[in-house]
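Exercise 7b. C-alpha cells:
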C-alpha cells in the first residue's frame, strides 16, 4: 500500500485550490493500491489558502522548533503544518504503507526541494515538515519525479 499526496491524485486541495494530477497516481488510488492525504488539510488549513514557506530552515528544523512555517500574509501556520505531519504519519502507520509519494517543493511534502522562505519563487535543497517527520520515522519518502523507482521491479 502506498500513501500519496492528494493533489497528485487530482484532488483540489492545493493552496491555490487546484491539483497536480499524475495519471499513474490516480490509477493507483482507483485500484485501491494507494490512499490519499493532504497534510495541510489534515492540519486544519482551508482550501484555497495563502501560500506558505518554511522560514529559517527546513522541515526538520520546524519539527525541532528552530524554524517556522509562515504564510504570505506573515501569519505563523507552523502548528497546522506539524499537526498535519503527525496526522499523515498516523495514516501511514494505519495502512502499513511501504512508501509515500509526496508533492515536491511543498512546505509539507517536499522531499528534496522547498521554497527558500522569502516568497521569491526560489527553491533550495530541503524537505517539508511531513517529509521530514516520515523520514525520521524510517518511512520511504519519494517525490512524484522519483516514484518510477517503485515500479522498476515490476
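Sequence design result:
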Amino acid at each position: 500500500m502506498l500513501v500519496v499526496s492528494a493533489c497528485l491524485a487530482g484532488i483540489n486541495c492545493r493552496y491555490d485550490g487546484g491539483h497536480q494530477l499524475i495519471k499513474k497516481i490516480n490509477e493507483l488510488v482507483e485500484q485501491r493500491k494507494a490512499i490519499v492525504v493532504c497534510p495541510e488539510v489534515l492540519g486544519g488549513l482551508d482550501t484555497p489558502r495563502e501560500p506558505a514557506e518554511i522560514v529559517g530552515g527546513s522541515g526538520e528544523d520546524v519539527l525541532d522548533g528552530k524554524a517556522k512555517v509562515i504564510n504570505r500574509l506573515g501569519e505563523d501556520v507552523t502548528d497546522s503544518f506539524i499537526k498535519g505531519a503527525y496526522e499523515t504519519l498516523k495514516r501511514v502507520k494505519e495502512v502499513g504503507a511501504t512508501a509515500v509519494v509526496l508533492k515536491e517543493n511543498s512546505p509539507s511534502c517536499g522531499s528534496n526541494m522547498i521554497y527558500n522562505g522569502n516568497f521569491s519563487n526560489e527553491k533550495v535543497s530541503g524537505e517539508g515538515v511531513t517529509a521530514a517527520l516520515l523520514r525520521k520515522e524510517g518511512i520511504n519518502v519519494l517525490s512524484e519525479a522519483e516514484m518510477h523507482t517503485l515500479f522498476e521491479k515490476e
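Instructor comment: The mean pLDDT is 96. Strands lie at 2-5, 34-37, 52-55, 68-71, 99-102, 113-115, 123-125, 141-143.
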